[in-house]
Design goal:
Blueprint (H helix, E strand, L loop, with lengths): L10 E6 L3 H13 L3 E7 L3 H11 L3 E3 L2 H6 L5 E4 L6 H10 L4 E3 L7 H14 L4 E3 L7 H12 L5 E9 L9 H20 L3 E9 L11 E8 L4 E7 L7 E8 L3 E3 L8 E3 L2 E3 L6 H4 L1 H17 L7 H20 L3 E2 L13
Parallel strand pairs: 1-2, 1-4, 2-3, 4-5, 5-6, 7-10
Antiparallel strand pairs: 7-11, 8-9, 8-15, 9-10, 11-12, 13-14
The chain binds (2R,3S,4s,5R,6S)-2,3,4,5,6-pentahydroxycyclohexanone.
């Protein structure tokens, strides 16, 4: 493997965006990954930027992402800016020859995501990893190992449930699919080890007078190899956050259980804590994701979810949005995967 960074030394990371997600990554890189140090942070909120820089000891602060990417002290970049900036910043990292962990979605449309893939392919080596952190969640990994072991027989169906507590203001159908359900789309491909062939999306608007909004989205899938699947994405459940997957094989079923806390029985009631958001539910996954990313860079190049995965998830996301608008099933057309993305 051609090395992106020739180093057994700590890798100097620059983090773009220090809000909820970026702030968590800064914290994890600083306290949980011995092989990394955050040397630069960028945010347009200058007060937050100063607080985060002081807390992690970053020596450089920027209010412009491109300035951070081109700074010579920055060896690798983590992008946690708003979705609409992802593709442009990821391409800047590729142009600078710097590895990048880009939060999902890689772009807000498949066409934009393809530009990232094209830039990476032109450079002839992988630099981009996309933040599909569920690949690092212990329970998801167990499901994947079990299905890949063949013990359950051939996989027949995927089912994903994605419950978000609330959204204010109401979200658009596009946003619920491209920002939230995109995780489930990636899980559906990853778990099944097959591509999605058709999608059929139905949804309930958040405000019945505004059909462009969505609170509940249901996506039915068919796969190229004949399996089927479904994704339920609730943007406004009102009670908490849950993500689960279930795989049905010929001989059995394997599924995660989002409710990780102890079960309490009291006063003729049984109860369990439901987590509030993804930062709670995927706390371990986010740590393992950045650890694995930094380790992969020390070994040569990123090995986690690729720009290709980021692109294909957006092709499927665009098809889901088109299906929601037309009220009809839509076929998913995926071009041939370029050689640099072969895993293993
Ligand atoms: C958010 O951006 C995430 O990435 C979370 O994992 C997801 O559950 C949530 O729906 C998204 O808005």
């Amino acid at each position: 493997m051609r090395k992106v960074l020739m180093s057994n030394q700590a890798i100097n990371v620059g983090v773009i965006g220090t809000g909820g997600m970026g702030g968590r990554h800064v914290n994890n890189l600083t306290h949980e990954v011995a092989a990394a140090q955050v040397v630069a942070v960028m945010d347009v909120d200058e007060a937050r930027l100063r607080t985060v820089a002081a807390a992690c000891g970053a020596r450089h602060t920027f209010t412009d992402g491109h300035a951070l990417i081109s700074h010579p002290d920055v060896e690798a970049v983590l992008i946690a800016a708003p979705d609409r900036f992802h593709a442009d910043l990821a391409r800047a990292c590729i142009a600078a020859g710097k590895p990048v962990l880009c939060e999902k979605p890689l772009a807000t449309t498949a066409a934009e995501a393809y530009n990232v893939v094209a830039a990476e392919v032109a450079g002839g080596r992988r630099l981009v990893q996309v933040g599909f952190m569920r690949e690092y969640d212990p329970a998801h990994c167990q499901v994947k190992r079990m299905i890949d072991s063949g013990a359950l027989g051939k996989a027949l169906a995927f089912s994903g449930t994605h419950i978000n507590a609330s959204s204010d203001p109401a979200r658009t159908v596009e946003d619920v699919i491209s920002n939230s359900a995109v995780h489930d789309i990636h899980s559906a491909r990853w778990m099944m080890g097959d591509e999605i062939a058709t999608v059929y999306t139905s949804y309930v608007p958040s405000d019945p007078r505004r059909p462009e909004t969505a609170r509940m989205v249901l996506i039915q899938l068919t796969y190229s190899g004949g399996a089927i699947g479904q994704i339920e994405c609730n943007a406004e459940a009102g009670y908490g956050y849950e993500v689960d997957v279930k795989m049905t094989g010929e001989r059995g079923v394997v599924q995660t259980n989002s409710l990780r806390s102890a079960v309490v029985r009291l006063a003729n009631q049984q109860s369990q804590w439901v987590e509030e958001d993804w930062l709670q539910r995927f706390d371990e996954a986010y740590i393992d994701e950045v650890r694995a990313w930094v380790h992969s860079l020390q070994q040569g190049a990123p090995t986690g979810p690729s720009a290709w995965d980021g692109y294909v998830s957006m092709v499927v996301s665009d098809a889901c949005i088109a299906s929601a608008k037309r009220g009809q099933p839509v076929a998913v057309e995926i071009p041939e995967m370029p050689g640099i993305y072969q895993r293993g």
